[in-house]
């Protein structure tokens, strides 16, 4: 029977535990760093627009999304790619949309060039169910 002195066993265990703790700490540290980087990216116009695009796609294409019935369920589509959407907002609309809400000019139309605009939540709520530049929608 092979026996190790108790001191050697304790030393081996401490090394193993220390190594596991170091790996765990690195992992947590890298997660925190990635999270900070993601937050910084989402604070940029490009990051904000890509997240907004993702949400538009979800509510128009994912039947499990809570808002699907109001968008995809009514046949509303996103007719942009992510790159086209970012390019359109930055270069055509020339607007910084951070802090604003996206809306469709024709509420029965699709998310497509010429039918989107950015407004405050108060404006968006006041136009609910109305044609934005006219009277009540039928």
Descriptive overview:
The protein has 138 residues and is mainly alpha-helical. It has a domain at 8-43. It contains 4 helices and 2 strands. The protein has helices at 6-43, 45-61, 82-93, 121-126; strands at residues 101-104, 116-119. A two-stranded antiparallel ribbon has the order 1-2. Helix 2 (45-61) packs across helix 3. The longest helix is centred in the N-terminal third of the chain and has 38 residues, at 6-43. Mean pLDDT is 79; it is low at 132-138.
Topology (SSEs and partners):
Elements: H1 6-43, H2 45-61, H3 82-93, E1 101-104, E2 116-119, H4 121-126
Antiparallel strand pairs: 1-2
Helix pairs in contact: 2-3
Which characteristics define this entry?
138 residues, mainly alpha, two-stranded antiparallel sheet, 4 helices, 53% helix, disordered C terminus
> Which structural category fits the helices and strands?
mainly alpha
**Helicity range:** 40-55%
- How far apart are the termini? 89 Å
- Specify the biggest β-sheet: 2 strands, antiparallel
**Which strand order do you get reading across the main beta sheet?**
1-2
Oligomer: single chain
* Uncertain regions spanning at least 5 consecutive residues: 132-138
| Count of separate DSSP helical elements | 4
User: What's the helix-strand series?
Assistant: HHHEEH
- Report the count of strand segments: 2
Radius of gyration: 26 Å
3D shape: elongated
Name the average pLDDT.
79
């Amino acid at each position: 029977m092979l026996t190790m002195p108790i001191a050697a066993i304790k030393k081996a265990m401490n090394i193993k535990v220390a190594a596991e703790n170091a790996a765990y700490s690195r992992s947590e540290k890298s997660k925190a760093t990635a999270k900070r980087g993601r937050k910084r990216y989402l604070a940029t116009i490009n990051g904000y627009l890509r997240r907004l695009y993702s949400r538009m796609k979800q509510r128009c294409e994912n039947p499990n999304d809570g808002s699907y019935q109001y968008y995809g369920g009514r046949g509303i589509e996103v007719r942009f790619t992510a790159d086209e959407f970012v390019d359109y907002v930055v270069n055509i609309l020339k607007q910084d949309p951070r802090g604003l809400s996206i809306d469709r000019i024709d509420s029965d139309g699709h998310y497509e060039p010429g039918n989107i605009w950015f407004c405050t939540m108060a404006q968006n709520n006041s136009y609910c169910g109305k044609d934005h530049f006219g009277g009540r929608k039928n």
